[in-house]
Design goal:
Elements lengths: L1 E6 L5 H12 L5 E6 L11 H9 L16 H4 L2 E4 L2 H8 L5 H6 E3 H4 L16 H30 L1
Parallel strand pairs: 1-2, 1-3, 3-4
The structure holds 4-nitrophenyl phosphate.
The site of 4-nitrophenyl phosphate (4NP) has 10 residues, from loops.
Length: 156
């Protein structure tokens, strides 16, 4: 199963989400991330995101930012967006209902009904990155269980 995490720049939130989810899933899953803008294309994640992940034993230092492409909407099974603007931007790229069904707000899928947006830590400090890590870690625990169950159901 192929999972894509999406935020704006693909240097803070979605690289963290990618690294955390990967750490909880087996090799049956491919996890990647992308941004809705290409401004940081080719760059490694923000140093504060790298440090925060490393503090929790996760290495995201070798990831490289890339913009989301139309082909991603065909190739990925699930596309999780970090905030509402990201969600709207990705939905606007979809061509049909099949593609639209793949796109969701990450925290909403993880069961949050209020506060469904992962706040952008880019303009903040290390404590904002740690808060984002904690939010994503809890959500990734729930999402990883859902995805593992879905993989089992798909095989039956
Ligand atoms: P991200 O954070 O979407 O979580 O990667 C941001 C990265 C870059 C910018 C804004 C947010 N920026 O304005 O360049």
């Amino acid at each position: 199963m192929k999972i894509l995490m999406v935020c704006l720049g693909n240097i803070c939130r979605s690289p963290l989400a990618e690294g955390i989810l990967k750490s909880k899933l087996s090799d049956n899953f491919f996890v990647d991330s992308a941004g809705t803008i290409s401004m940081h294309e080719g760059e490694n994640p923000d140093k504060r995101a790298v440090k925060t992940a490393a503090n929790h034993g996760i290495d995201i230092s070798k990831q490289k930012s890339r913009p989301i492409r139309l082909l991603d909407l065909e190739n990925f099974d699930k596309i999780y967006c970090m905030d509402l603007k990201n969600f709207e931007d990705v939905i606007s790229m979809t061509k049909n209902q099949e593609q639209r069904k793949k796109v969701s707000l990450f925290l909403e899928e993880a069961g949050n009904h209020q506060d469904c947006e992962v706040p952008d830590p880019y303009w903040g400090d290390m404590s904002d990155f740690e808060n984002v890590f904690q939010l994503l870690d809890i959500a990734c625990n729930k999402i990883s269980r859902q995805l593992q169950q879905q993989l089992i159901n798909d095989k039956i």
